[in-house]
């Protein structure tokens, strides 16, 4: 009997017109311009406001046994990677699990407080997934983004489940989910409307 293999799950907040980040991403505005004061105020407010209303979805995101993210999701390159910084998630990142960062810049693993260790993967999305599977065991793997990274995994057919958190704003431009991804067959598993976001989960069919 084969061991259970965890699911590869995408968790992504998007605007009603499909953008995961606006234009002009900076260190001060990692999610670009969305009409808020910074840090993706309008796009990601559901995670921090009315917390009890969306607690189940936030808990789902934080339950992953391993995480994959792109370099921009970790943080922009600041100066030389011989004197690296530790991203914009603080000294105690919310992941509390191994995080595999896709990058062109090799560096040693970076342990953080709270059980998070960043591993920097320079040989592509399949290598990151292989390493994440080894770290997660039979637990689930969450691809946190950004959309460019998610689109690569979707295009390669490596995603089992797509959890979208759709916010009722439009951005009109920026980084868009599904850009360059071939048509997908999706089965809707759940949907729930909260006051500031709609949570929808799809299974990605072969």
UniProtKB/TrEMBL annotation:
| Domain (Bacterial bifunctional deaminase-reductase C-terminal) ranges | 7-199
Query: Which Pfam families does the annotation name?
Result: RibD_C (PF01872)
PANTHER family documented for this protein:
BIFUNCTIONAL DEAMINASE-REDUCTASE DOMAIN PROTEIN, DIHYDROFOLATE REDUCTASE FAMILY PROTEIN (AFU_ORTHOLOGUE AFUA_8G06820)
Write the protein's name. Answer: Riboflavin biosynthesis protein RibD
Species, as recorded = Asanoa iriomotensis
